[in-house]
Amino acid sequence: MIKRLFLFSYLIICSVCIAMELADSGNTVWIASIRGTINPASGSYFRSAIQKAEKDNAQALIIELDTPGGLLSSVRDMAQAVATAKVPVIVYVTPAGSSATSAGALLMLASHIAAMAPGTNIGAAHPVGPQGEEIKGAAGEKATSDTAAFARGLAEISGRNRYVAEEIVSKSKSFTAEEALKQSLIELVVSSRDELIAKLDGRQAKTTSGTVVIKTINASIKTAEMTLGQKLLHYLANPNIAAILMTLGILLIYVELSNPGITIAGILGGISLLVAFMSFQLLPIKVTGLILLVLGVVLLLAEPFVVSHGVFAVGGILAFILGLLWVVDPSETVLRISPAVLISATLSLGVLVAAIGIAASRMRMLTRKTLEKIGGSTAAGLSGYEAIVKNIESDGHSGKISVRGELWDFVSDIPVNVGDKVRIDSVSGFKAVVSKRQ
After folding, report:
1. Cα(215)–Cα(237) distance, rounded to whole angstroms?
2. Digit-coded pLDDT (tens) for 130-148
């Protein structure tokens, strides 16, 4: 009887625990945060946050957003993730002063429910050139038309104003939170996360699971964090970081090649270049710009080994800077390398190459003066050096001489004596051919 009571009690406890777990998993709201550019790393984080919310059978996933824009390819992937999500995805621009610009505006259009805090803005999704200028000609028309169609399609799916959505791209329009609400670009203007969660209760969202009624009363909050790898990639997916790392890598390797033996400079330079190339892989790049970058690196690193009188260095710096200017594809992202970074890279490379060139010139001048002083003509050979006869063979025409602190065998056309000063005319095999100095 006692065993039966114990078993019955155990089953009741297990049932209650399971019921509580199920109730808790169905009444949760997940929070994710994207601050900074939209790139493959933030896209990966976005998809993993959706998967966590789905696995938890959550009521909704709220993405707190503040972005200047990013990659069109990444926001397309994120829009597809929203379209196939089983939980409502709410994108919330917060806090005041934040924005959903360019690719961020497109992500807002893709969301099931879009919300903004007062003092935030949305818009300006027009494709621009590498320095923020308008893209002229057929390339500009193609990029604008494609992005505008993408914005219209997202607005149609989410039931938002397709005409205003198109103008965000074609006319680069921007709107405050209140203006976006009036233009039917968003559904809510709320001051805080708590207010948003409260106002989401009872709202409907169309997901792949059908029309879902969101229930957020007494919902527990769970947070999706970026992994260490995602954080690192998110930080590196910036053309300015890539440009700085590549410049630093070239500077360190150039120093190593110009002063062999430092070792640590070469190692750190190689690591910087590899990380820079990895960073560029996270960005949409143009082949022409990449070729110019590689050409610039090759010419700069070849300078210490080729007597080009600075031509390789100047050409390398020019190719490198032009490569940085054109490497990012403006039709895919508003991200670009800052003029400050370009100027800093130019000055850094120019100053280093000039400094090492001046130092090398001084070294050659000192070497020449030293050789002239001791009577030699070259640093590596013996021709032109003055030597002293140390001992003589019985023939009087050969023996050993002392030159530069070294003992060498010699031969002479005329007889010489120990202590005579001779001049080395040439080297035959391992013997110095000398003539008696007058």
Report:
1. 37
2. 444 455 555 557 778 888 9
What span, in angstroms and rounded, lies between the C-alpha atoms of 296 and 342?
14
Strands (E) located in 47-203: 60-66, 89-93, 99-101, 113-116, 121-123, 174-176, 188-189
Query: Which sign, positive or negative, has the C-alpha torsion 423, 429, 431, 435?
Result: negative
**pLDDT exceeds 50 at position 254:** yes
**Is omega for the bond preceding 88 within 30 degrees of 0, making it cis?**
no
Per the CB < 8 A criterion, the answer to whether 89 and 64 are in contact is: no
Instruction: Measure Cα distances from 20 to 13, 168, 222 in Å.
Output: 11, 46, 17
Mean pLDDT of the chain: 83
Residue appearing with tokens 């207010």: 195
| Residue-wise pLDDT tens digits, 196-223 | 999 999 999 999 888 999 999 989 999 9
| Nearby residues of 78 by Cβ (< 8 Å), 6 or more positions away | 38, 43, 46, 47, 107, 110
12, 21, 375, 410 from 27: Cα distances, Å:
22, 10, 93, 98
Confidence of residue 348 (pLDDT cuts 50, 70, 90): confident
Task: State the Cα–Cα distance between residues 409 and 430, nearest whole angstrom.
Answer: 7
Q: Checking phi first, is residue 20 left (phi over 0); if not, alpha (psi -120 to 50) or beta? A: alpha
Report which of 73, 126, 137, 120 is spatially closest to residue 102, judged by C-alpha positions.
126
* 13 Cβ contact partners less than 8 Å away, ≥ 6 residues apart: none
What is the length of the chain? Answer: 438
Strands 220-223 and 28-35: parallel
DSSP three-state, residue 57 = coil
Rounded mean pLDDT, 257-274 = 81
- Mean pLDDT within 249-257: 84
pTM: 0.66
Gap between the Cα atoms of 80 and 47, Å rounded:
10
* Residue 319: both structure tokens together: 């190719």
pLDDT tens, 366-411? 766 665 655 555 544 677 788 899 999 888 889 999 887 788 899 9
What are the start-end ranges of the E strands in 198-306? 204-207, 210-213, 220-223
Taking a C-beta distance cutoff of 8 angstroms, is the pair 125, 144 a contact? Answer: no
| Region of residue 178 (left: phi > 0; alpha: psi -120 to 50; beta: else) | alpha
